[in-house]
Design goal:
Elements lengths: L7 E4 L16 E4 L2 H16 L4 H13 L12 E4 L2 E4 L4 E3 L2 E3 L6 E4 L2 E4 L4 E3 L3 E3 L4 E6 L2 E6 L3 E4 L2 E4 L3 E4 L2 E4 L2 E4 L2 E4 L3 E4 L2 E4 L7 E4 L2 E4 L3 E4 L4 E4 L2 E4 L2 E4 L3 E4 L2 E4 L5 E3 L2 E3 L4 E4 L2 E4 L3 E4 L3 E4 L3 E3 L2 E3 L4 E4 L3 E4 L17 H8 L9 E7 L4 E3 L2 E9 L5 E8 L10 E7 L7 E3 L5 E4 L2 H16 L4 H21 L6
Parallel strand pairs: 42-44
Antiparallel strand pairs: 1-2, 3-4, 5-6, 7-8, 9-10, 11-12, 13-14, 15-16, 17-18, 19-20, 21-22, 23-24, 25-26, 27-28, 29-30, 31-32, 33-34, 35-36, 37-38, 39-41, 39-43, 40-41, 41-42, 43-45
Helix pairs in contact: 3-4
Length: about 475
């Protein structure tokens, strides 16, 4: 109604001075009406004529709210505060708003009044009662007093346990209960949820389905959705099915047929379609692994996972890991791209790098495949300065050599010709900086070792030269 232009009447205690006026619940803002204006003016005249008028009362309230309050700190162990004044504890006892002298006889302050020579107690701070014969029930600022015999408390109410009982915070007769917040006679009514129904006659075997009353002799309740269905049917999802012609799979209805069984919410025949972990699978292409997951027939199982034996392996019965690259023998180690296994073999000295010569090979043309050989053209370098063109013949069939790149060649062949035929006694590896570092470190040990390759080569050379010398100085056929 305020979403329009018009005239209003405002009655307020606020002195309106500014341009913005904030109104509250104490103000009266009404749409302007001539009859309303006449009634308001007539009543306001009566306010002014009354001796202890509304204006005087308002002035008194304003004075109490806005006037200065006298506040004083005191020690509660030695002083008491009574009627906004501080007194010594020896002066008396404060009851209500009055200070009383400390009596010699028993006393009790109740309802703001001192009761002397009394053995009674105070219930709720307002009502005297005798604990010997009465009961006091207090809760949330409310109280009640009753005779003690057979009585108990229901929050702030006392009740007779012989004829009544407590439900929530309500006292009811013994033949009553609550339906929502409404009391009802359990001999005449039935409560379903928060709905009351007339008590059905015999032989009605009643039951509740949500808010609905039904006869359990004829019907049943689908509790998932509080729906009453005939007893010869079966609950399924949000409805029901005919058990003779249908089958329910996790809330989904299907027509019955053959040996079909449920698999999750779907049907399977168990022959062409199997069930694994409540999921159907094609038995011609898959199998069930430990009743947990379907895997392809070409796969092997590892725990509940499938894996390809050609590329992976199973560890600890459940962990699928990729197979390491197989170590190629002899010269075909050049085909290996992942050099981690080669580096490991060199470090463990399972693969010897103690060859006579070490070269770097730079292939600057794409190699040519010729039967079971690769023909590689490039430059051979013993140092970064000494480089010459060579043609390498590598007896390997792998496709990894079909590219240009940098290689390390370790050999005992004194490379002098332009064409070099490599064999399994040579070590021809794809260049890698970490590999280069390991090879250099190991070859230093070769030079230091007493029975090293260099020493063996010197011995072999000496034997050859001695044999040649004897052959020259002795006549042939002498021996």
């Amino acid at each position: 109604m305020l979403n329009q232009t018009g005239q209003f009447v405002l009655l307020t205690d606020t002195a309106v001075q500014g341009r913005v006026v904030r109104l509250g619940d104490s103000d009266l803002l009404l749409p302007r009406d001539q009859r309303l204006i006449e009634v308001i003016n007539r009543k306001r005249k009566q306010c002014r004529n009354v001796g202890s008028s509304w204006f005087v009362q308002q002035l008194k309230k304003r004075a109490m709210l806005e006037g200065p309050l006298k506040r004083e700190l005191y020690d509660p162990n030695q002083k008491i505060c009574c009627n906004n004044s501080v007194h010594d504890q020896e002066d008396g006892i404060c009851c209500g708003s009055e200070l009383h002298k400390v009596p010699q006889a028993p006393y009790v302050c109740c309802g703001g009044i001192m009761h002397y020579a009394s053995q009674k107690s105070c219930c709720g701070g307002q009502e005297l009662y005798d604990p010997a014969i009465q009961i006091c029930c207090e809760f949330n600022g409310l109280h009640s007093v009753g005779l003690k015999d057979n009585k108990s408390c229901c929050f702030d109410k006392n009740y007779d346990m012989n004829t009544q009982h407590c439900v929530g915070n309500t006292v009811l007769a013994q033949n009553q209960e609550l339906c929502g917040n409404i009391p009802f006679n359990i001999e005449m009514k039935v409560c379903c949820g928060e709905t009351l129904h007339e008590y059905p006659p015999y032989p009605y075997l009643w039951g509740c389905c949500g808010e609905e009353l039904f006869d359990r002799n004829k019907n049943q309740c689908c509790k998932a959705h509080d729906k009453v269905v005939p007893k010869d049917q079966e609950c399924c999802g949000k409805g029901s099915i005919d058990k003779t012609s249908e089958i329910c799979c996790i809330g989904v209805a299907h027509k019955r047929g053959g040996n079909m069984t449920c698999c999750g919410s779907e049907l399977v025949d168990g022959v062409t379609t199997g069930c694994c972990a409540a999921k159907p699978y094609n038995t011609s292409t898959h199998t069930c692994c430990r009743n947990d997951k379907s895997i392809h027939l070409n796969q092997s199982s590892c725990g509940s996972r499938g894996y390809d034996k050609r590329t992976h392996q199973c560890r600890n019965g459940y962990q699928v890991v990729k197979k390491p690259n197989p170590t190629r023998p002899g010269i075909c180690r050049a085909c290996i791209r992942d050099m981690s296994d080669i580096r490991k073999q060199i470090r463990m000295e399972k693969l010897s790098v103690c060859k006579k010569y070490k070269f770097k090979v730079y292939t600057n043309r794409v190699p040519i495949r010729s039967g079971q050989f690769w023909i590689m053209h490039g430059k051979l370098a013993k140092t970064d300065v000494e480089k010459r063109n060579v043609r390498l013949i590598v007896p390997c069939k792998c496709s990894q050599l079909n590219k240009t790149g940098e290689y390390v060649l370790l050999t005992d062949i004194d490379v002098k010709r332009r064409t070099i035929r490599l064999g399994d006694s040579d070590l021809f590896l794809q260049h890698n900086q970490r590999l280069e570092t390991i090879i250099s470190r190991k070859r230093k040990k070769c030079k230091i070792a007493g029975s090293s390759w260099f020493v063996r080569q010197l011995k072999n050379r000496a034997v050859e030269e001695v044999g040649e010398f004897i052959g020259r100085i002795l006549p042939k056929g002498r021996f």
